[in-house]
Design brief:
This protein is 30% helix and 21% strand. With 415 residues, the protein is α/β, with parallel strands linked by helices.
């Protein structure tokens, strides 16, 4: 039987002055997507960054985002040695480096925001949580798609009780993830790669957020069916929750059918992409397989524009459907559709606030004592436990009970 992990409540000191001085380590696609959010939030000042690529360092040292010019360093250790007054470090390096970089930042006296998945192994994630507690610092994990406004609104409806208790939640996503430009470690599940860690981390976060957080057990099957692109490229995962709900997460990253066909032709980042206009990477022919250096070059070129700061519609990470006792909730391009006893009701949501804006607002609210963070290190570790259990369940062909789950707070973050 699953038990809620016995984590101590955060015991860090709240901040007394703004803006918070931010250092970033790793300026790939994830970090570059965060830069507009840092720039528009007056509570943060991008002060410094660490990046091993000298061309990226030179480019971003001339950035006009935020107050002043961020100073670039070749390593996190160098940045922390010189920049001794940083308040927050955002860790956006490859997953297998997260434990080392989060530990360094916490030891230097900084609060930490780390990208998902928070580590390559659950044991590393639990150590990160313990380290944050011992240094009395906040550790948060994000971005993840539970920050998307439609998901937040689904949770609010569930909490309101207007449709009764949630009974089922399903999230299905079909993409070309496996054939986008990748580093080798991004496809290796032992290093936190493959769709179950990289994309399942979003799905399990969404399902835990909607169903209360406490997953009792996991039964899964993962798939690796293209030997030229070896890695976990698809999964079907069944989640049984402690207090009743059941959920499924389906992901297929092999570039056939697109879940945009189930979601009004709206992409993961909120753009309309009809079938004929999609830049879709299907299984490549033998002569189309890129070499390692070509692929890395293509990945760097894609990073600057892969995740937009704004879009015409809400982010649409596949199809998410929630069934409560009194009706069903699903996403539309601009909000939600609710089918209940009184028929169909449509809710339109604002588009001015991006998911990454909400990550930073949760971070700021928590550090200022305005609200308690939901997406803490303990929450991220619980998501990672589901990822790890899904891989192991598939290998062992059996259902697995979980031990490190945590319940979410009573309220979703304010928008």
């Amino acid at each position: 039987m699953s038990t809620q992990a016995n984590y101590a409540k955060p015991s860090f000191k709240t901040i007394d002055s703004l803006p918070l001085r931010v250092g970033i380590v790793g300026l790939g696609a994830a970090a570059q997507a965060f830069l507009p959010a840092f720039a528009k939030n007056a509570g943060f000042e991008w002060t410094a960054f660490a990046e091993t690529d000298p061309q990226l360092r030179e480019k971003h040292e001339h950035s006009s985002l935020g107050a002043g010019k961020p100073k670039g360093y070749a390593s996190l250790a160098e940045m922390l040695t010189v920049e001794q007054h940083l308040d927050v470090v955002y860790v956006a390096t490859p997953t297998d480096l997260h434990l080392e970089h989060v530990s360094q930042a916490l030891s230097a006296g900084c609060h930490v925001l780390v990208e998902k998945p928070m580590a390559s192994r659950l044991s590393d994630a639990l150590l990160m949580v313990k380290t944050a507690q011992s240094h009395q610092k906040l550790l948060m994990v994000g971005h993840s798609h539970s920050y998307d406004l439609p998901i937040l609104e689904m949770r609010r409806i569930i909490e309101s009780g207007v449709l009764g208790r949630v009974q089922m939640a399903h999230t299905w996503c079909y993409t070309d993830w496996m054939y986008r430009p990748r580093r080798p470690e991004e496809l290796d599940h032992r290093l936190g790669g493959g769709v179950t860690y990289r994309q399942g981390a979003h799905q399990f976060d969404i399902l835990r957020y909607l169903c209360g957080g406490l997953v009792k057990s996991v039964r899964a099957k993962t798939f690796d069916w293209d030997p030229r692109r070896s890695g976990v490229g698809a999964h079907t995962v069944f989640l049984d929750f402690e207090d009743g709900p059941a959920a499924t997460a389906v992901y297929n990253g092999y570039g056939g059918f697109s879940s945009m066909d189930l979601g009004f032709d709206v992409s993961e980042w909120g753009f309309v992409q009809p079938w004929g206009e999609r830049t879709w990477r299907r299984r490549p022919a033998k002569d189309q397989v890129l070499g390692a250096q070509e692929e890395l070059k293509a990945k760097k070129a894609r990073a600057a524009s892969a995740i937009p700061a704004s879009a015409a519609h809400q982010p649409f990470f596949g199809l998410t459907l929630v069934s409560c006792e009194g009706g069903d909730i699903r996403q539309t391009p601009d909000g939600l559709s609710i089918d209940g006893p009184e028929g169909r009701r449509v809710i339109e949501l604002a588009k001015e606030t991006s998911p990454r804006d909400l990550v930073l607002q949760e971070l700021l609210d928590s550090l200022s004592g305005t609200a308690q963070a939901i997406h803490t290190g303990a929450w991220g570790a619980a998501n990672l436990e589901v990822c790890e259990a899904a891989i192991t369940s598939s290998q062992q062909k059996k259902e697995l009970s979980l031990r490190h789950q945590v319940a979410m707070g009573l309220s979703a973050p304010l928008v």
